[in-house]
Amino acid sequence: MSVYAYLVAVFVLLVGAFGIVRSRNLVHAVVCLSIAQSGTYILLLAVGYQSKATPPVFGSPATKPTKAVAEPLVQAMALTDIVVSATVTALLLAIAVQIHKRHNTVDPNELAALRG
Amino acid sequence: MTRTARLLMFAVAGGLVAALLVLGVLDLPDFGASDHPYRDAAVPAAVLHKTSNVISSINFDLRALDTLGEETILLASVIGVTVLLRPASDEHEHESISGSGRLLDSTKLMGYVFLPITLMIGFLTIAHGAVTPGGGFQGGVVLGTGIHLLYVAGSYRALERARPVGVAELGEAIGAGAFACVGIAGALAAGAFLVNSLPLGAFGDLFSSGTVLLLSCAVGIEVASGVVVLLAQFLHQTVEVTEEHGQ
């Protein structure tokens, strides 16, 4: 039971990868990549979780700092991870738009030939 | 490569990756255990710098150099999207947009009611990044997407008037530059890049934690501008650009 949360992260990562492999649409592939990336958020937050711990924010007005808080390092990493993932998704979608303009298709199976 | 071959390959590779990950995961500390060495180091360091939000302290103080890197990724993506989606030589932009379509009055009302509230929450989240949950990244996203309530509530034209893409492009550069400048100022004042050299204030106050507030604002400006520029490129693409020899 204690590894259950980690296994969820592994499962989400692999489901996302599977989605990319059998994708027939580039937009679908980009969404699958986002799902695979969500696996990393789950893993990060699961590593930092502590039972009955409070969030690592001591607030305003300030409460007395305590060490019984969830791991703040992985939360900071998940936070930047999400922002970067969102912008990279935007970049990939822009590439998908360009591919559709140039090749008139978004099916990766039909994108076999290189074209200048 | 055929689909079947690709799926077979994934079955082999995915199976191996799954086995490796499961093996690795089994050796991790128990879920919910109380052994967190990084936490034990980060919380006292944040308290020392009078930052009551430990996550902000890590992002904008203890590991601010990492955030500079993340910010550069953000900047690079925004530039990439702008370059990729600029109208090509065989496309043209058209000005007139036929009718704004049907819009429920309730949608319009909710949009206009929530627009100022959302923008205010965005500013608050950025400004209180050092003391309460939030910070530049979260507040910037709220701010950047909040202004697009105009698109939901009104029309593309209203959004275009209220959303200065030129200013957002400047803001993107200023946000990224300000982060580096705060870092260089720290290097000049205290001898190390991005060192927290400002007066720290009192624990839990709005103006506490030295450079964390400044860096949070810089990131907030950059993320908000980035979201506005990104969405502007995509909206422009769907609404205004058509192929000359298309339909």
Write a short abstract of this structure.
The complex is a heterodimer of chains A (116) and B (247). Chain A is mainly alpha-helical and 116 residues long. Chain A is built from 3 helices and no strands.
Question: How is this structure best described in words?
Answer:
The complex is a heterodimer of chains A (116) and B (247). With 116 residues, chain A is mainly alpha-helical. Chain A has a single domain, classed as Helix Hairpins (Orthogonal Bundle), CATH 1.10.287.3510. Helix content of chain A is 63%, strand content 0%. Chain A contains three helices and no strands. The model of chain A has no long low-confidence stretch (mean pLDDT 87). With 247 residues, chain B is mainly α. Chain B has one domain. Chain B has ten helices and two strands. In chain B, strands 1-2 form a two-stranded antiparallel sheet. In chain B, α4 runs parallel beside α10, α5 (105-127) packs antiparallel against α6 (136-146) and α6 runs parallel beside α10. Chain B starts with a helix and ends with a strand. Classes of the chains: A mainly alpha (116), B mainly alpha (247). At the A-B interface, α1, α2 and α3 of A face α1, α2, α3, α4 and α6 of B.
Overall mean pLDDT of chain B? 85
Radius of gyration of chain B: 23 Å
Question: Counting H and I runs of at least 4 residues, what is the number of helices of chain B?
Answer: 10
Total domains of chain A, how many?
Answer: 1
Shape by Cα distribution of chain B: globular
**Category by helix and strand content of chain B:** mainly alpha
Uncertain parts of chain B: none
Instruction: State the helix count of chain A.
Output: 3
CATH architecture classification name of chain A: Orthogonal Bundle
Query: What structural category arises from helix and sheet content of chain A?
Result: mainly alpha
Fill in the CATH topology of chain A. Answer: Helix Hairpins
Strand percentage of chain B lies at: under 5%
Tally of strands of chain A? 0
User: Could you give the distance between the termini of chain B?
Assistant: 34 Å
CATH classification class of chain A = Mainly Alpha
